[in-house]
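Recall the central idea of this unit: under ordinary conditions, the amino acid sequence of a chain determines the structure it adopts. In this exercise we apply that idea directly, starting from the sequence alone.
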Amino acid sequence: MAKFKFVEWLLLWLQENSHLEFDWDEGNRAKSASKHSVRTEETEEVFVLGQAAPLGVQVSPHVDEERLGIVGPTSGGRILHVVFTLRDGKVRPISARPAHKKERELYDAYVREI
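Accordingly, the structure predicted from this sequence is:
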């Protein structure tokens, strides 16, 4: 399981970006749908609704390209964990899945603080 380190700039970036462009890789689109039953529209909603909690930058396992993690709701009320990268000014989702219990707890604590 990946580990993340909180970075404040991600929180600010999430708060300041209401209009985002997405760049989906077919493999990632298919993986999230088939493996986790998460549609691309749901993944994008986590960003667009503006209620996501930043997990931070992935520190483990090591990857060559910076990966970021967030946890947030969809319009249907599901809480998703989304890993993505920023490439050429676009959000490139790597994976999206229903949040685990600890991630949901983290999100709930984040919502209580804002």
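The longest strand covers residues 79-87.
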